[in-house]
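Researcher: Checking consistency across runs. Here is RanBP2-type domain-containing protein again:
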Amino acid sequence: MNRPGDWNCRSCSHLNFQRRDSCQRCREPRPSSISTDLLSSFGGRPVGSSFGFNAAGPDVRPGDWYCSLGNCGTHNFANRSSCFKCGAVKNESSLSAATGFIDMSDGPRRGLFGFGGSSSGGGMGRSPWKSGDWFCSRSGCNEHNFASRSECFRCNAPKEPATEPPY
């Protein structure tokens, strides 16, 4: 369960306690206040689930996004081009629901607020996925795993060849 001030790692989506300055799982430094402020502007929704699932839980898939209009913050499926609740058009300021990152999958990679973003960049706009990363296929797990893993770090299920993302 999330408490005020807890934060999700922008690299691996691990939920960290407020007191941590770096991620417990991957040691990524805590995001600056700009990213914390940005996330809180989306209806105060934490990037992750209040039900104890990881942000990449069974109801959230790659490409899903949160509406960025005002305080709507509604979770939308990847195939939607507009928010099902308020009708706002999906744009670069929409947060990716699976990762909590700015979703740049449909447009040029300009990065956060129009500043340069690249696959080697270290900002919020960078993609947490690397070539070969995979989702665990075990029912109820669906955890994001790095390409170097042969089994899921969460449930120890073996990697299956069909679990790699198609992109």
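Researcher: Does this match what you'd expect to see?
Model: One thing to look at in this run: The longest strand covers residues 7-8.
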